Amino acid sequence: MFQSCASESDVLAPAMSLPESALLMLACKSPMLDILRSITEEDWHPISLAAATFWAAAYCLFMLYAAMNDTGFLFIDNVNLVIHEGGHLLFGWFGPTLGLWGGTLLQWLVPALLAAYFFTHRHTTGFAFSTFALFENFLYTATYMADARAQVLPLVTVGDPEGSGHDWYNIFSSLGLLQHDTQIAAAIRMLGWIGMVATVLWLLWRGKLSRAS
């Protein structure tokens, strides 16, 4: 799907100015571009179109449930909450700042590391599931972010309830971004939805490729 950067730069570089040629070479060496190429390669474990359609339908039903939910807390977020609180305990060993950020860090790291594992093993359904879970976590985080000033959500803590406070109130306050809590939350939520939809489309595409081969 992607043309080799090496051959492309060899053809185009002589006709380009030095800054343009440098930008092309920089783009060719971009890790993100390498990841995109790898995602579209054909060495993934094959998945039948029927199986891909089944999984895609399940993910779409979940997204419909998420879109209709007006509480901001989905059933899967019970798992996310446990991991989040575990992150505070784990990263708390490295100081109060990492302890504060640790809930969200571990909450995102767990599905991200699983996705990386399945990515390296070219496991199609495992990668799709982990990636979908990662982006679903964005919705959970966005709900928490948007509550930074309002603070109407019930808080759960594994430490002292009086001393812990609201994660994102403390984070945004320390960064001078408290007044932008809902705007940042909306951007994170949008990224979550885009990522989930893209994951479903990628899974269906892999199924179509397997059928064609």
Spans of at least 5 consecutive residues whose pLDDT stays below 50 are: 11-15
Radius of gyration: 21 Å
| Major sheet attributes | none
What is the averaged pLDDT score?
85
Distance between the termini: 15 Å
- The helix/strand series, from N terminus to C terminus, equals HHHHHHHHHH
Strand content: under 5%
In short:
With 213 residues, the protein is mainly alpha-helical. The chain contains 10 helices and no strands. The chain has 2 domains: 41 residues, no CATH class; 167 residues, no CATH class.
Key features?
single chain, 213 residues, mainly alpha, elongated
List the helices and strands and how they pair.
Layout: H1 5-12, H2 18-28, H3 31-40, H4 49-68, H5 77-91, H6 96-120, H7 124-146, H8 161-164, H9 167-175, H10 181-212
Helix pairs in contact: 1-2, 4-10, 5-6, 6-7, 7-10
